[in-house]
Amino acid sequence: xxxxxxxxxxxxxxxxxxxxxxxxxxxxxxxxxxxxxxxxxxxxxxxxxxxxxxxxxxxxxxxxxxxxxxxxxxxxxxxxxxxxxxxxxxxxxxxxxxxxxxxxxxxxxxxxxxxxxxxxxxxxxxxxxxxxxxxxxxxxxxxxxxxxxxxxxxxxxxxxxxxxxxxxxxxxxxxxxxxxxxxxxxxxxxxxxxxxxxxxxxxxxxxxxxxxxxxxxxxxxxxxxxxxxxxxxxxxxxxxxxxxxxxxxxxxxxxxxxxxxxxxxxxxxxxxxxxxxxxxxxxxxxxxxxxxxxxxxxxxxxx
Length: 303
Hints:
Blueprint: E1 10-12, H1 26-38, E2 43-46, H2 58-72, E3 77-81, H3 87-99, E4 104-107, H4 117-129, E5 135-140, H5 142-145, H6 151-157, E6 163-168, H7 174-183, E7 188-191, H8 197-203, E8 207-210, H9 217-228, H10 232-249, H11 256-264, H12 286-301
Parallel strand pairs: 1-8, 2-3, 3-4, 4-5, 5-6, 6-7, 7-8
Helix pairs in contact: 1-2, 2-3, 3-4, 4-6, 8-9, 9-10, 10-12
């Protein structure tokens, strides 16, 4: 059985950090990494959906990962999402991730064309072959990718010894149990939807990777601690607080990650904006953002 303990915990999805002109900012990336390490998180999920990866070039994604690794290597677990919409670019990013010391790589399935399972398996196995000494995590997010990870496809992927589990962002919470049942503790399954972390952990998830974790890590860290201690009732109350904040964030015109970056200014971080076509915050959003900041402060104070 493999030692997978380094993956079992709260792993924020890392936000892209830009200069004011919209270019990737290594300095702001390093600063954000230091901030999150200081919060006591288990690791970081870099260049995923929350990192705006589909709107970035290969070179930008490499620069982001290199900047994160300069601060994080040897301190926390780093999972690098390397999926692109073609195999060659994905393999290049996988090889780069291994070269800079990422603990694992991850990938969504190819998007746009609906490919059969055997073609998706070939895509993932090709990516994995470019990082032969690095763990591989399947990213299941059917509501955005347009294809769901089926049990036959998962079973096929597990023939690859580098595949260690799934980042599961599908909405049916029982999917976590199905994936976990295949190998038990010899795999890791992450809860993806932030709004159901308590439920995901309760049904068997090893940890969580989430897009709002970075803006309020204290809440998710406490949820994990309480569920581990069997205090799911208390964990549920914190989950409810986090969910109410997410609902308010989603009332803004600006994209979720644009709002998260505005919230983080409260803590002295300037991560820049978001990349078009993602919507930036508007002047009308600021009263709502202030409300969200207040809700986070109050929720943290209640811990």
